[in-house]
Design goal:
With 517 residues, this protein is α/β, with parallel strands linked by helices. The protein is 27% helix and 17% strand. The chain has helices at 29-37, 51-60, 64-67, 83-89, 143-157, 206-210, 233-236, 274-310, 341-344, 371-379, 393-396, 479-496, 504-516, and strands at residues 4-10, 39-45, 93-99, 115-119, 129-132, 135-138, 163-168, 258-261, 268-271, 316-322, 345-351, 360-362, 366-367, 408-412, 425-429, 433-438, 456-461. A hairpin with a 3-residue loop joins strand 15 and strand 16 (433-438).
Length: 517
């Protein structure tokens, strides 16, 4: 009997915000069930740490230079083949509910699905609009609950047919809006400050310091559940983007005082210490974020309970993941985009009782382009030659092949984007080291902008330096490691057909000259 496949994906859910991963920040008992009754995969990496491109890679099994969804401003050509089309053609009933974010209109809306209802753009947390073949309508309620309601209704109507369901939550994407029933969580306690919260970005490429993703200076009033005051930038903060009403909460400088107002309670909070105010912002951010996560966990539980009640648990693959990682105050940041570990690593938990051992874990490297081939493999459908990923099935079943490629490739194209000013880069990570090339060029990509600094290399020893605080690219003691990682980068780019912006021969010659000097 062919298995049903349920793919549950949230937006910006860091692995550290799932208790099965052991960070101790929160408790997610329902998501943890998947780890307890299946596998927690510890080395799943995104090929482009940003929403739209990651979703395209998952759907098509291809890298972004192939599916042409490179930035938030590029939309999928829905005439392309995708995993849902293959499964539907093989007799699966297919559906997607929730966040799509791959474009709207006839050229970009979901194809390959028997049923679909998706939120426009990022969607709303409360009373969200949905677009479906029947048109657009708003549904009263909380988005995470509604998306789950749609998913459960689809499961109930599938009968004996095998089904493929993509349940895509918009949560916990900013601006974080938790359901009120979880507002009590962490009301009387604070979360631990990350060890790297006060990072000064020394010993890193210039891109780290240039990014506008700092909790202390780049979050807006709504992010933190605070009342945005009226007035000019000196009082209300600078505009996030010209033409938007949203402003950033000003960074407090030494000798200044600021009073902010809680949007829910009206309580005033006054600060004259910049560090205390930065930590206050961190607590506001994290508590809102984690409370929003709690509704996702609740609704994962609803789906698992429904499978139990209908007797489907034993023949249903259930995957929980996020479209990428997310910074939870590490290096003082929120958001994603970078190839640094917190952003690069995706959570991936999967249960399939007949073939995946309960309580198992794996550190074999996999990427989001591997998801589609995995689903096809389990469904008994041939993996088409255009897909660039590889089925994770042997890894999930504890039979990793000897020729499994322990390399992840990442490329961020949206250079110097208007809001975050994150610079373009690509690189590879193996089981110990990470090599990043900051080519810092917009290359004419939609949504990218000129600017930034000259190209730079970064090399990190992720075993000895897990927080990636020391760039070893120019350390002669690591010349051999650099050369090995450069060869892996070149080989991977050649394999997938991506075009390099670096010249390896020139780089090797320059490094030899420097070593001889």
């Amino acid at each position: 009997m062919r298995p049903n496949i349920i793919f549950i994906m949230s937006d910006d859910h860091a692995a550290r915000a799932i208790s099965a991963y052991g960070a101790g920040l929160n408790h997610t008992p329902n998501i943890d069930r998947l780890a307890r009754e299946g596998m927690r995969h510890d080395a799943t990496y995104v090929t482009n740490s940003i929403c739209t491109p990651s979703r395209a890679a998952i759907l098509t099994g291809t890298h972004n230079h192939v599916n042409c969804v490179t930035t938030l401003a590029t939309h999928i050509d829905n005439r392309l083949p995708n995993v849902a089309k293959h499964l539907r053609n093989a007799g699966y009933r297919t559906a997607i509910f929730g966040k799509w974010h791959l474009g709207e209109g006839k050229a970009h809306e979901p194809t390959g699905f028997d049923e679909w209802a998706v939120v426009p753009g990022q969607g709303d947390y409360w009373d969200p609009a949905f677009i479906s073949p029947e048109g657009r309508k708003r549904i009263s309620g909380y988005a995470t609950d509604i998306i789950t309601d749609m998913s459960l209704d689809f499961i109930d109507r599938c009968g004996e047919e095998p089904f493929f369901l993509m349940c895509h939550h918009k949560a916990p994407h900013r601006n974080f809006q938790p359901h009120p029933k979880y507002n009590h969580l962490w009301a009387d306690e604070d979360l631990p400050l990350p060890e790297t919260f006060n990072d000064d970005y020394a010993n890193r490429a210039a891109a780290a310091a240039a990014a506008k993703m700092r909790i202390r200076s780049d979050m807006n009033w709504e992010d933190l559940g605070l009342v945005q005051p009226e007035g000019p930038a000196l009082r209300a903060g600078e505009l996030m983007v010209d033409g938007w009403f949203a402003r950033k909460v000003p960074e407090l400088k030494s000798g200044e005082t600021i009073t902010v107002v809680c949007a829910e309670t009206g309580e005033n909070h006054t600060f004259d210490d910049p560090q205390k105010f930065a930590e206050f912002r961190y607590q506001r951010y994290m508590k809102r974020y984690l409370r929003t996560v709690q509704s996702i966990d609740e609704n994962v539980g609803r789906i698992l309970d429904e499978l139990d009640a209908k007797g489907l648990a034993g023949n249903t693959i259930v995957v929980y993941t996020s479209d990428q990682g997310f910074f939870l105050g590490e290096h003082g940041w929120f958001d994603k985009r970078f190839m640094y570990e917190e952003s690069l690593r995706m959570p991936f938990l999967v249960r399939y009782p007949p073939e995946i051992a309960p309580g198992s874990t794996s550190k074999d490297i996999a990427c989001n382009v591997d998801f589609a081939p995995t689903f096809l493999d389990y469904a008994g459908v041939p993996v088409p030659s255009y897909m660039q990923g590889r089925s994770m099935r042997p890894v999930l079943e504890g039979n990793t092949p000897d020729d499994w490629e322990q390399v992840a490739y990442h490329r961020y194209w949206m250079h110097n984007d208007e809001i975050h000013e994150a610079w373009a880069h690509y690189g590879v990570r193996d089981q110990r080291y990470k090599l990043i090339y900051w080519y810092n060029d917009d290359l004419g990509q939609l949504g990218a902008r000129p600017g930034g600094g000259p190209p730079e290399w970064e090399l990190f020893d992720c075993q000895e330096d897990p927080f990636e605080l020391k760039n070893l690219a120019d350390d002669q003691a690591y010349n051999e490691v650099f050369e090995t990682m450069l060869a892996k980068l070149d080989a991977k780019m050649a394999e997938i057909g991506d075009v390099p912006e670096h010249d390896s021969a020139a780089i090797r010659a320059a490094r030899l000259d420097r070593a001889a000097a």
